[in-house]
Design a protein that fits this description.
The chain is mainly beta and about 280 residues long. It contains 1 helix and 15 strands, in the order αβββββββββββββββ. The strands form 3 sheets. Strands 1, 3, 4, 6, 9, 12, 13 and 15 form an 8-stranded antiparallel sheet that branches.
Amino acid sequence: MRIQSSRLFAFVTLVAMGAPLCAQQQAAAPQGAERQAAPAPAAAKPQDTEVWEPVPNVVAPGANNTAPPSDAIVLLDGKNLDEWVSAQDKAPAKWTVASGVLTVNKAAGNIETKRTFRNYQLHIEWKIPENITGTGQARGNSGVFLASTGPGDAGYELQVLDSYNNKTYVNGQAGSIYKQGIPLVNPSRKPGEWQTYDVLWTAPIFNADGSLKTPAYVTVFFNGVLVQNHFELKGETRYIGQPFYKKYDAAPIKLQAHGDPSEPISFRNIWVRELN
């Protein structure tokens, strides 16, 4: 035991004496040999996160928040129906334009745009007649089809209705995505006053085999009040039955000539900005 303890003491002493020598040799090593100090990280600068290109296009806004900006397609300026056709047979639209206002001709049926669209921003103004009659869905009924996928009422409908002190099912009142999206609130003005929809429409995307890849979404401001907040649609809107998706590419925007017996409603100042 004494021999082993002496050997252990000698070993420890040797290591202790060698450590300073090793440190001196490393300190004396010429610069660049074997050991190199890691470079200090560069200090972050504001410019590191600045993006300068591509520069967004310049768009001149309208004179007010309802007037079309410079890059908008004006679909209705109150002068004619040059941008519209019958949704039934693509013949010239036969609704009435007078004094800057478009009035529904219920006997002539729905009308739709000649152009087709995918993603867009839409502005549209509408008015329930001051002398409106009827109740529920039979009182100033119409609709803005954000994508018309066929004749009649095929497509995706944003409901138009007199919802000022007029009770009906809530997923069918003004500002609803018909039979799907209940509006967050009811900001309806009384009959005889102009109402406004400002819409952001994101069209559905389909796979090559016709199956759904991504659904449609819609955001709606009704008289400046948010009523649909990036709402995800379950498919085309249906009067009877459940919604469903069917493949389409681009589609017209359609206005409904509803068959209820109340006085026909009017539209004005319709414009769209493509977001493709």
